[in-house]
């Protein structure tokens, strides 16, 4: 059975953010992930995590001005200094919270623009150099353009090529089954071929992004395949509960 992590940005929204840790533990989760902790002191987030007896699976590096529509900085022109500072901020939080992984968001830029690609590769190289010695891994995630129009990294093969080009053990793929299905389909074959480069998996139904088992994919078969492939990381439940989080957890009880 895969080890599932509750995504506290999307799940348990019945509670204030800092109360979602205990709610996730009470619901049976052993780990959590979320997008961003930066509105709260790292020590407070770490305290909530520890009191609830949870592990942190990952969170994202600062994305720029999220509320103004920014979705990361790594490939964005003119934001290089801010990106480097954000690596420092994220690493500081990761050390205190105890997160083994950080998601580096690319931002809105044209992947076919050679200057943007060079900027992105340089940013990833910088981030790997800055975090590797601390034992914090990095992941990059292809995201579909329907949910995030204009997002730089919108192709799984391109993402894999980038990971292979940087060629450092601490840079890996975040394989979100939801995005994979929307972008390319062929989920199981992609898991098989990309598994050596995958450090984090996420799941949601397609197309509504609700609970697993409620969309067009056979999620039970995909979970069995993830087990069969020997994946030992977490599968982040990055879905929007169709009703209350608790009411929607029957799929998990089956596992
Ligand atoms: O959108 C997703 O799927 C993610 O995992 C990002 O971390 C946040 O946008
Ligand atoms: Mg995701």
Automatic annotation (TrEMBL):
Pfam family, one: AP_endonuc_2
GO aspect biological process, one term: glyoxylate metabolic process
InterPro entries named among the record's database cross-references: HPT_OtnI_isomerases, HyI-like, Sugar_Epim/Isomerase, Xyl_isomerase-like_sf, Xyl_isomerase-like_TIM-brl
Stretches assigned to the Xylose isomerase-like TIM barrel domain: 21-254
UniProt KW Zinc-finger keyword: no
Active site residues per record: 141, 238
GO molecular function: hydroxypyruvate isomerase activity
Keywords carried by this UniProt record: Isomerase, Pyruvate
Family annotation (Gene3D superfamilies): Divalent-metal-dependent TIM barrel enzymes
Matching NCBIfam families: OxoTetrIsom (NF043033)
Similarity section: Belongs to the hyi family.
Protein name (Swiss-Prot/TrEMBL): Hydroxypyruvate isomerase family protein
Organism taxonomic ancestry: Bacteria, Pseudomonadati, Pseudomonadota, Alphaproteobacteria, Hyphomicrobiales
